[in-house]
Each structure stands twice: as structure tokens, then as C-alpha cells.
Amino acid sequence: MLFSFPVLFFTLLYYGFIAGIVYFFISRRRLVRKIRQDRFRGLAKRMQLEFLEEDRFGLKSQLNQFDLFRREHRWFFYNNTRITNVLYKKVGETDVYLFDYTYLKSYGKTVKRITQTVFFANNRHWDLPNFKLKPETWWHKVKQTIGVDHDINFPDGPEFSDKVWLKGQFEDMVRNKFSPELRKFILEHPPAHVEGNNFYLISYKPGQKLEADEAEKFFDNQIELMQLMEHEGKLELLSLAELKEKSADPISLGDDLN
To answer: What's the predicted TM-score (pTM) here?
Structure first.
């Protein structure tokens, strides 16, 4: 069946209009990415850091033990996670990074693309206890009140215990690591989510993509937190059996710390 000229004209016009809208949004997205990339390149130069547009350090494979990097991020079997705008420097023997992490998360029938800024430090000489730290919310307090969950509190730091939700597999090791000086620093710099595990330390503000000036301040704060954690509360290594004897309610190595 042949189309008349008016029908053909309006059909082409319609599809041309749709193509134009798609092209506009793709171009706009590329422009936004380029602007952010240039700003972080400038930040790296100002702070004397190395800058890479994409992950060349194999960061994703190192970070897949953390909850943030195991979240729902596949769409039609396509892994759409990306690490971009990587800033890097060496602080003593520690490799330190700041980068954008992008992943997809589904909410029912809709899918949302989330990009957030992540700080990551890696030192093969560390032996950090496995812990998770986040701001304490009313829901944490409710769970603690009814006895379904609890965190690590400090009798000598009631303000820290009230404002920060801290969990770890071995409480003695976590308590020893979180010295009064470290706790004071965390209170003075309202905490992001911070997680430690053996050689690795990460921190981030959930769902927040920091602008260059915010990223610079966040990076400097996390370096200071990292250095405090590096030098405070060092423990001699204990055997797993000794640790289990000290723990009244031991948590298995496979448990997830909420």
C-alpha cells in the first residue's frame, strides 16, 4: 500500500522530531560528562594528583567485597557499572583514590542511574578490622530499643555512640581502632559511610555526586581520617580462636553487617 505524500511527509517529520529529541539528550549528557571531566582534571592539577578518565587500576575487582559495589546494577544482562574521573596519589605506602562510581538500580518497573563520589585507600601493610560506620538514624534507635539489633557503643563517648552507628565482626578490635582522637575527628566532620576490611578503606556520601570543591574538601578529610586510623589502636594479631573466646556473641565471617 502506497502512502500519499502528506502521510509520508508527516510520518518522516514525526520520526525526525523523535530522533532530534534523542540526539539532544545524548548530546547534553555528553556535554555534562565533559564539563565534569574537565573540572576534575583541573582539580587533580591543583592538588597535584594523577587524573584518569576511566579506571585503569582494576578498582572494581578490588572493591567487589563492599556492599556498595555489589548492589543491583545489571540491566538485561549488561553490567552497566562504570568508574570514571579517577584521582590518584600515593600517601606514604598507601594508594589513595577518589572517583565517580555509576551503577543502575531498579525501583519496581523503573530504573535509575546513580553516580556518586567514592574515596578509596589501599595499603597491603594494614590489618583493619571489618567494620561499617554510618550516621545513626531514628530507625537504628528503634531497632536497638526493641532488641533486634545493636551497634558498638563507647561508655567514654556518649555523643559518638548517640550519633554514629558502628558495627564490626570483632568488637574488641573495632573498639581498639576507634580511639578517642579518631572519634572526636568523626564528630567534628559529620560522617559519611565508612567501611574497612583488611587492606581496604572506603567512604562515601550515599547517592551524592560531589562537585569539584566539595570533592576536594571530602578528599582532604578522608586522608586525615585514614591517617588517624592508620596510627591509632594498633593491635597484635590474635588467633581466631582467641577472638571467639573474647566475644560473647561472635558473628560468623559470612555475616553481613547492617
So the answer is: 0.76
